[in-house]
Amino acid sequence: MSTSSGSDDGEVWLVRHGETEWSRSGRHTSTTDLPLLPDGEEVARGLGERLEGRSFGLVLTSPRQRARRTAELAGFPDAEVDEDLAEWAYGDYEGITTDQIRETVPGWTVWDGPCPNGETAAQVGERLDRVIARLEAADGPSLVFAHGHSLRVLTARWLGLPPRDGRLFRLGTATVSVLAHERESPVVLRWNS
To answer: Which residues does the record give as substrate binding sites (predicted)?
Structure first.
């Protein structure tokens, strides 16, 4: 990966998928393969204008249809599916909100868990470390289409932080963020734009 200041060779562009019914209502969505809402599709098409004219050496997407469809609508129908980009597996908390979970587990957060029958932050971090290794080996800038929590963990790991520090990076639907290097240091170049 390029470590020179001012070069975009090693940039990693992150795109969170467009809005779904569950992302709109705050329900934890991992394995449930929901489609984009019509508004989510429209915004995903708009992402294409923001990415147009850029060349990427590697384009990856989560296997979930909401990420794959966002990639397609943004102009990247041939994005390579990478299972490691799937959203955090919420287990028994799939389809419910944090407020609902906190009715029985006061103060619960996904970052500190647990997610019964789901993944821990460390497990999600292990998956995304593999993605980062692929991104670092890519020729030129990379583009990744994925999910709120998984992209936040990827960012924490990019910066050398523990997976749970993904909590520090709020990320909206259909947003573009850019990770890069400034000399030897991994940095966030743009976030949640």
So the answer is: 66, 87-90
